[in-house]
């Protein structure tokens, strides 16, 4: 299954129009920080994003919007998933993994992704990654969400992995983030072997999404080794 070209257009349109400078020395300085928590906080300050979903109720909230004169940039994860999905064979819905040397010296960047089993021309993708030694769990939607906070609960077959949690939409709204660093690790620790990964949500576009979880537990072990948790 190919990574949807329409999905890529929606994710990359903002980046094509953006005339602002590339990330500068601030993020380069963050890579030199040894402590996971301090480095994560540094990246968050540089990018202007929260380190974890904002706690609170499950009520709808407005989707994130760009500041005037500053079109939303395409999240890095969209490009990484596109690259990871490029070699997917038709009819294969299992999670794929790729690993390369990270920009952070001595670290490995790992990306695990798979399309939803909904058969849609424009599928959602679930991504698990280790980038700059920081764990991430994210859902990529074919269209931007109209909300910036969404309640999601994960199941392996019929076993819940946790209580419902608040996931945060990232600009331009296509990437729904479960939280990074220790927040993501806490959820990834609950993953076990199983056949299907299922999502329950208060958002109709997400509720009921299913993924082929065959072999996923073993792939997460590789992500865990790369991110040292």
Number of helical stretches of at least 4 residues: 6
Q: Termini separation (Å)?
A: 32 Å
In N-to-C order, the SSE pattern is HHHHEEEEEEEEHEEH
Structural class: alpha+beta
Global outline: globular
Q: Which segments are poorly predicted (pLDDT under 50) over 5 or more consecutive residues?
A: 12-24, 52-61, 64-73
Largest sheet features: 10 strands, antiparallel
CA radius of gyration: 17 Å
Mean pLDDT: 81
State the domain count. Answer: 1
How many strand segments?
A: 10
Helix content: 25-40%
In terms of DSSP E residues, the strand content is 25-35%
Say what oligomer this is.
Answer: single chain
Tell me what you see in this structure:
By secondary structure, the chain is of the alpha+beta class. The protein has one domain (about 5-15, about 25-55, about 70-225). The protein has six helices and ten strands, in the order H-H-H-H-E-E-E-E-E-E-E-E-H-E-E-H. Strands 1, 2, 3, 4, 5, 6, 7, 8, 9 and 10 form a ten-stranded antiparallel sheet that branches. Strand 9 (about 195-200) and strand 10 form a beta hairpin. The longest helix has 13 residues, at about 5-15. The radius of gyration is 17 Å and the shape is globular. The model is unreliable at about 10-25, about 50-60 and about 65-75 (pLDDT under 50).
């Amino acid at each position: 299954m190919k990574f949807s070209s329409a999905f890529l257009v929606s994710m990359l349109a903002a980046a094509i129009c953006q005339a602002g400078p590339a990330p500068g020395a601030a993020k380069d300085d963050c890579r030199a920080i040894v402590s996971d928590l301090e480095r994560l906080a540094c990246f968050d300050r540089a990018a202007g994003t929260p380190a974890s979903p904002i706690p609170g109720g499950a009520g709808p909230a407005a989707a994130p919007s760009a500041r005037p004169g500053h079109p939303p940039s395409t999240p890095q994860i969209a490009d990484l998933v596109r690259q990871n999905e490029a070699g997917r064979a038709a009819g294969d819905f299992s999670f794929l993994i790729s690993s390369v040397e990270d920009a952070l010296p001595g670290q490995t960047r790992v990306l695990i992704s798979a399309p939803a089993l909904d058969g849609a021309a424009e599928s959602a993708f679930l991504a698990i990654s280790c980038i700059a030694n920081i764990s991430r769990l994210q859902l990529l939607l074919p269209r931007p969400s109209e909300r910036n906070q969404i309640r999601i609960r994960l199941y392996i077959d019929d076993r819940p992995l946790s209580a419902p949690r608040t996931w945060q939409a990232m600009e331009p709204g296509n990437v729904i983030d479960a939280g990074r660093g220790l927040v993501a690790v806490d959820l990834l620790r609950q993953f076990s072997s199983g056949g299907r990964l299922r999502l329950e949500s208060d958002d109709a576009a997400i509720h009921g999404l299913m993924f082929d979880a065959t072999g996923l537990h073993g792939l997460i072990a590789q992500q865990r080794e790369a991110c040292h948790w």
